[in-house]
Write a structure and sequence with these properties.
The complex is a heterotrimer of chains A (about 350), B (about 325) and C (about 300).
Chain A: E1 5-14, E2 22-32, E3 37-41, H1 48-55, E4 64-72, E5 75-76, H2 82-88, E6 93-96, H3 110-122, H4 126-139, H5 145-149, H6 158-170, E7 176-180, H7 188-205, E8 208-213, H8 216-220, E9 225-230, E10 233-239, H9 240-245, H10 250-257, E11 308-309, E12 317-318, H11 331-339
Chain B: H1 2-28, H2 33-39, H3 45-55, H4 61-74, H5 89-124, H6 129-143, H7 146-160, H8 183-189, H9 193-230, H10 233-240, H11 245-283, H12 288-297, H13 301-329, H14 331-335
Chain C: H1 2-19, H2 26-35, H3 38-60, H4 99-135, H5 137-152, H6 155-164, H7 171-179, H8 182-199, H9 201-208, H10 213-249, H11 262-269, H12 278-305
Helix pairs in contact in C: 2-12, 3-4, 3-12, 4-5, 4-7, 4-8, 4-10, 5-8, 6-7, 7-10, 8-10, 9-10, 10-11, 10-12, 11-12
Classes of the chains: A alpha/beta (about 350), B mainly alpha (about 325), C mainly alpha (about 300).
């Protein structure tokens, strides 16, 4: 099955005056099949947002160096002229962002912000587009859509705004949708609703989805495949079930272990991942995660690990010299390792 | 929207009230006392008695103030003592009003027509040669005193090269019918094209001189505003939707970036009014500004009074209108 | 092992201690940005030269600015003035005085006008702002309403209105007339600053930690409030000089000719402007350059302290 989107060795470097160039995305590669939902997971600063912005060619031209290949339906998006990219955006691939209020034009009614996509890519006239817009708003679960068409963004609630943005993104039935932390700015109850909505819609339309988030909970119920990013590189890739059942990378393991659990006993401590992103060492000198890794061995500071399939399963890739032992085989050891206090 | 309008109108009334108070205090502080100031040095004792009674100078201040308010409302400001002796001060104002309107409106249009496009372009090519050059240009627009620029233009184009008339509003001898008091408009209405064009020729240099003020301000505000809006999330959304650069520019960037420009228009009216005083003086243009200047030199306080009150009131009213326009354009304000 | 992490952390802290505070404070950031800004240097050089000229003016002027040395070459009847000649590079004015000396000495008065007008505006605004901010309640509302009304009147118009009140206009009356419209500007700025500071997160944090009022005001609120005031003051010096020149142009300025001031010289030159435009060009040119200098400086400062510019 040919991939819908094939990202090959995507590298994004930011150059600013007087500072060393910063590589936000470091030879990242992954694929998205038609209709598949893929997650890009990681902490702030790991490069997941920049990756998606690079795919959409939404990064500013000045001060950015992008190399690699982004193959979408046979065309390399990175080498397209901007006009060609503009044609595809909104029609073939779409994106929604984190803050629904600031992502909407405050002085233009919602209806127009939806119809402008239809007018642009499907050549519809305003009146026909308005009718379609009304249906679109209804399909994303906005009550009383006719009224909403004339309203302004500040008159809608956070959840409704994000629904409207989803409607705008899906208006032309794009084959791929990228959602960058779409629920982070919303209340928890609304989060669940929006995620459920996204799931229904992508299944219904057969849209592929790239879900970007730092929240593993979001990923758990939604995606087919997970890519875990750290320091601009993919460190683990696996099917959802496999990843959650037995994460092999210490970072992924740490992320899962750090989630507060309702069934934890009273007095049980939270287990954070020690340190922060600023403790990284460059990938060129070893493993970027080494300073924070509880399973660090000598090689980790000398040789940079490569992303390769696990011996047992070819669809589970890992970038680690000393992966976590699978659950069952040494759970006690793992637990003991994590509970050691820093001296 | 209605509630907001009512609120602003009430504020307007309050401000006018405070203004009248300030004007009253100012009047009482004039050198020589209000009677001498209003009648001039050579007033007869009978006239003085009369004015004394009208002003109620022997009565408590509060009564004086209300008498003053009464006179203001009736439009009774007395007779001009220097600018056009014999005519009522209010008439002096009315006859010259149209001239200044044509001057200031034209200057404002000049400022907008140059300032907005240049400001937008400067923002698009951030850091380019154009951007830095524009900054210097607009700063010069601020630093050069308007009266000096006016004089420079007059000297070069009118006196030395004789391309345009150096002063006045109309060449003597041109037949023109008056309808509104706005000569250019009158000419257009009565189809007396040459009369209209003649008025325009007299206004070109003053328009440029006075227009540098709004240009400098509008240029900088537009540039700063466009820069800020360009970085907003909703512009990124518009890009992500694949909209044409034209749509993005007009519906998303400009519509938001122009909001501060609207606000600044109110401020500019004040600068334009004061600039008009200086410009009219240099060009001998018979507007309110020139009347104010003549009023100073001849100590014609009735005229000065009328003009200052009218100017301040106009400024405040225009600002209120600007606020209302802004609320019309930006739906978020209406909600408050 | 976890020990590697804690070791690395200790090393980091030690490095931090040894290097002194590497992190740049807002002021250091601002200074770094100023150093690279051509606008700043342009403005600073102009202002610097102007101040130096103002200080040493009377000593380097070739002649007494009030002495009518060229009166024999000046004739009212024939409308002629002394041309440029040896010892008098700029020629004479309508009273036969050396134009160059008057220009040089005039720098001092012009600077004083700008500085005093700004100072009065600043102090007046400070008093009003403190009154409003400290007492709050209806005093605050009343004062700010009056300030708003004063702000709603164009500043030059206000200056003119006040200038008219003086029977014998002189430099002092000009300074007062020009400074009064600036008082509401500073009042509003200072009050806005104080309000913003009171509500700001770092002050709230300090209060939550139990820091006393005094240190809060001085160590937290003042340093952050000062920068916009400095920017505004620089710009106000520029507008004061311009407005003073406008007043003189309109005949409301100082008539005392022994103390030359550029705006006043410009006003004087009005009468003979058609025949001897250079009498107006020199003071006008000087005013333009100086005002430009202050404006550039003020704008550069404003860009430098704007926290949005922080990388």
């Amino acid at each position: 099955m040919t991939a819908l989107l094939q990202v090959e060795d995507l590298t994004v470097q930011f150059n600013r005056k007087g500072v060393a160039p910063f590589t936000a995305v470091d030879k990242v590669s992954f694929e998205v099949a038609p209709g598949q939902t893929v997650g890009l997971v990681g902490e702030s600063g790991c490069g997941k947002s920049v990756t998606s912005l690079a795919i959409m060619r939404l990064l500013p031209k000045r001060g950015t160096t992008i190399t690699g290949r982004v193959d979408f339906e046979g065309t390399d998006l990175l080498s397209l002229p901007l006009e060609g990219m503009r044609d595809r955006r909104g029609r073939d691939l779409a994106m929604i962002f984190q803050d629904p209020l600031s992502s909407l034009n405050p002085v233009v009614p919602i209806g127009i912000q939806v119809t402008e996509v239809l007018e642009r890519h499907r050549g519809m006239k305003r009146s026909a587009a308005m009718v379609e817009a009304r249906e679109l708003l209804e399909s994303v679960g906005i009550p009383d859509p006719s009224r909403r068409l004339k309203e302004y963004p500040h008159q809608l609630s956070g959840g409704m705004r994000q629904r409207a943005l989803i409607a705008m993104a899906l208006a032309c039935r794009p084959r791929l949708m990228i959602a960058d932390e779409p629920t982070t700015a919303l209340d928890v109850t609304i989060q669940a609703q929006i995620l459920a909505l996204l799931k229904t819609l992508v299944v219904e339309h057969g849209t592929a989805l790239i879900m970007i988030t730092h929240d593993l909970g979001v990923v758990a119920g939604l995606v087919d495949q997970v890519n875990v990013l750290y320091g601009g590189r993919v460190v683990e890739r696996a099917d959802r079930h496999v990843l959650f059942a037995s994460p092999r990378h210490p970072y992924t393991h740490g992320l899962l272990a750090s989630i507060p659990r309702l069934d934890a006993g009273p007095g049980e401590r939270l287990t954070p991942i020690l340190g922060s992103v600023s403790d990284n060492i460059p990938w060129t000198g070893g493993c970027a995660f080494a300073p924070r890794c509880s399973r660090e061995i000598d090689t980790c500071r000398q040789v940079s690990p490569v992303l390769e399939p696990l011996s047992s399963r070819t669809d589970h890739l890992l970038r680690c010299h000393n992966p976590v032992v699978p659950v069952g085989a040494g759970a006690a050891t793992v637990a003991a390792t994590l509970e050691e206090e820093p001296s | 929207m209605l509630r907001y309008t009512v609120r602003r109108l009430l504020q307007l009334v309050l401000v006018l009230f405070v203004l009248s108070l300030l004007l009253f205090i100012w009047l009482r502080s004039l050198p020589g006392g209000p009677v001498t100031a209003l009648l001039g040095e050579r007033a007869t004792p009978e006239k003085r008695e009369e004015l004394n009674a009208v002003l109620g100078l022997d009565q408590p201040i509060i009564v004086q103030y209300f008498k003053f308010l009464g006179r203001v409302v009736q439009g009774n400001f007395g007779q001009s003592t220097g600018v056009s002796p014999g005519t009522s001060a209010v008439d002096v104002f009315i006859t010259r009003f149209g001239a200044t309107v044509e001057l200031t409106v034209g200057a404002m249009i000049f400022g907008l027509a140059l300032g907005v496009p240049l400001g937008y372009m400067a923002a698009k090519r951030r850091g380019g040669v154009l951007d830095n050059g524009y900054i210097v240009l607009s700063l010069i627009g601020i630093a050069v005193p308007v009266f000096f620029l006016a004089f420079l233009l007059k000297y070069v184009f009118a006196v030395k090269w004789g391309l345009l008339p150096p002063s006045g509003r109309q060449t003597p001898g041109i037949e023109a019918t008056r309808v509104t008091g706005l000569f250019i408009v009158d000419g257009l209405i009565t189809r007396e094209w040459d009369a209209s064009w003649d008025s325009v020729r007299h206004l070109i240099l003053p328009w440029i001189a006075l227009g540098t003020i709004p240009f400098a301000v509008i240029f900088r505000i537009t540039r700063a505003s466009v820069l800020e809006v360009q970085g907003e999330d909703f512009v990124r959304t518009a890009e992500a939707k694949g909209l044409t650069s034209r749509t993005i520019r007009n519906r998303h960037v400009l519509r938001n970036a122009m909001l501060p420009v609207i606000t600044v228009t109110g401020l500019l009216t004040g600068l334009l009014l004061t600039g008009a005083v200086l410009t009219e003086k240099v060009f001998g243009y018979p507007g309110i500004g020139e009347a104010l200047y003549l009023g100073f030199t001849k100590k014609d306080y009735p005229v000065i009074q009328v003009i200052i009150l009218a100017a301040a009131a106009a400024f405040v009213i225009i600002n209120t209108l600007v606020d209302l326009t802004y609320a019309l354009v930006d739906p978020r304000i209406r909600a408050r | 092992m976890v020990t590697t992490f804690s070791r690395a952390r200790k090393q980091r802290i030690d490095a931090l201690v040894n290097s002194g505070d590497e992190g740049s404070s807002l002021l250091q950031d601002a200074w770094a940005r100023l150093k690279g800004s051509p606008l700043f240097w342009f403005g600073a050089v102009i202002v610097g030269l102007f101040v130096v000229l103002a200080i040493i003016g009377p000593w380097i002027a070739p002649h007494d600015p009030g002495a009518q040395l060229l009166i024999d070459q000046t004739s009212r009847a024939r409308n002629s003035i002394a041309p440029a000649q040896d010892g008098f590079p700029l020629g004479g004015d309508t009273q036969g005085r050396d134009l160059l000396s008057r220009m040089i000495v005039g720098a001092r008065q012009t600077l004083l006008v700008g500085i005093f007008a700004t100072l009065i505006g600043l102090v007046g605004g400070l008093i009003l702002g403190i009154l409003a901010g400290a007492f709050g309640g209806w005093i605050d509302t009343l004062v700010m309403r009056i300030v708003d009304v004063m702000l709603s009147i164009p500043s030059l118009l206000l200056a003119i209105s006040i200038g008219v009140l003086f029977t014998n206009p002189n430099l002092t009356s000009v300074i007062i007339a020009v400074s009064i419209p600036q008082i509401p500007v500073f009042a509003r700025l200072l009050r806005g600053q104080m309000l913003a500071q009171r509500e700001s997160d770092h002050v709230l944090a300090a209060r939550a930690l139990g820091v006393k009022r005094g240190p809060i005001v001085f160590r937290h609120m003042v340093p952050n409030s000062i920068s916009p005031v400095i920017v505004q003051a620089t710009l106000v010096v520029a507008t004061s000089i311009l407005d003073a020149a406008a007043l003189s142009f309109l005949g409301l300025g100082s008539q005392d000719v022994s103390q030359p001031e550029w705006g006043q010289m410009l006003g004087e030159a009005q009468g003979s402007i058609d025949s001897h435009p250079q009498l107006a060009f020199w003071p006008a040119g000087a005013i333009i350059v100086v005002v430009l200098g202050f404006t550039l400086l003020g704008e550069a400062l404003r860009e430098a302290i704007d926290p949005k510019n922080r990388r």
